[in-house]
Amino acid sequence: MSNKDYILTKVTELFMKYGIKSLTMDDIARELGMSKKTLYAHVENKNDLVYQSMQWHIEREECDFKEIANKASNAVEEMMNIITNAAEHIKSLNTNIIFELQKFFPETYELFNKFREDHIRKAILSNLQRGVEEGYYREDMDVEVVSKIYVSNTFILFDQNLFPSKKHQFIELYREFMNYHLHGIVSSKGLKYIQKIKALNSK
Questions:
Q1: 87: nearest Cα among 150, 178, 198, 20
Q2: What span, in angstroms and rounded, lies between the C-alpha atoms of 41 and 92?
Q3: Which of 12, 47, 91, 187 has the fewest CB atoms within 10 Å, i.e. is most exposed?
Q4: How many percent of the chain have pLDDT more than 70?
């Protein structure tokens, strides 16, 4: 792993855990075990670091989505693996991160929104189309509409007025939402498959 990859890997973990605004460049350098001079050899300033961190995160997410889709034997398995993968990444997610991006780092927030539309929605749309073709999802579903609902509703979970972090753990919110999504789109064939997997996992 190069120095740049090491920095972006660790910084992304720090941002996800503590949020962005509260961390200074001194804090980040200390957490990375390097001098600020070394850190600034790779980034211009904190804004640049946040932007590069988001780019790095997006690239990894895109790779994860492709790998999950290629390995899954059907659309339901693909979606269940997406849930598992995402849950692993958001165990200690700071839910203020979206608000901080929107308010203090507009260029990075724009990049994030583009990723939402260009990749996340299209990945979900592809999964929905696959599921309908395989018979695991409802035939009468408007996949375009459902893919947009999915992306929109995912980010409602970050709304601190609706789901204050003191009352709701984000990972539990996410799992509940994904179960809601999955059970709303499966056919009877898809439901039987989910029940089969759950029964196997409970043994």
A1: 178
A2: 29
A3: 91
A4: 98
